[in-house]
Amino acid sequence: MSACLRYTRRVWESLLRNQGHDAQCIPSLVVTRAVPGTVEASIRIEKYNLNRAQSLHGGLILSLTDTIGSLAVATKGQYMTGVSTDISATFLKPAGTTGDTIFMKGTLDSMGKTLAYTRVEFTNASGKLVAFGHHTKFIGATLNHEKNVTFSADGESVLSGDENV
């Protein structure tokens, strides 16, 4: 397992330990792949994730855009991933219902000294795009966090920071 994947999973686990929104709404999220600038994950849809039409609630897609966008920032070694300044989602078709799996790919489009821009694509088990989101985060206060690391270009090793990743 690459250092980038281990680190991104560590950041995800810290979000779960917080016992906040992520732990309550998407505890079954699994980070499956992470390389610098890209994260992939999946989630099994539970009954509490549905709207009254019995399909995945659009609000959850927005929450996942936030979380996966944050984890995309983490793939660049950011332990604290900043705060949202703008978030949006476009819904193309129903994403699924109880028992279905949704796959997400988050990409860090740009990261500067104060802002990071991410995009997240949501696909169903058939590989069809069901939604996509955009997320802007203020990261200016997090760039020098003590738990930040720097990865090699392929994400296989840690170049600086916590060597236990």
TrEMBL record:
Keyword annotations: Hydrolase
Domain Thioesterase: 55-131
Keyword GTP-binding: no
A molecular function (GO) term: fatty acyl-CoA hydrolase activity
InterPro entries the UniProt entry points to: ACOT13, HotDog_dom_sf, PAAI_dom, Thioestr_dom
The keyword DNA damage is annotated on this UniProt entry: no
Alphabetized Gene3D superfamilies for the sequence: Hotdog Thioesterase
Membrane-spanning segments: none
NCBIfam families in the cross-refs: unchar_dom_1 (TIGR00369)
Family according to the record: Belongs to the thioesterase PaaI family.
Name of this protein: Thioesterase domain-containing protein
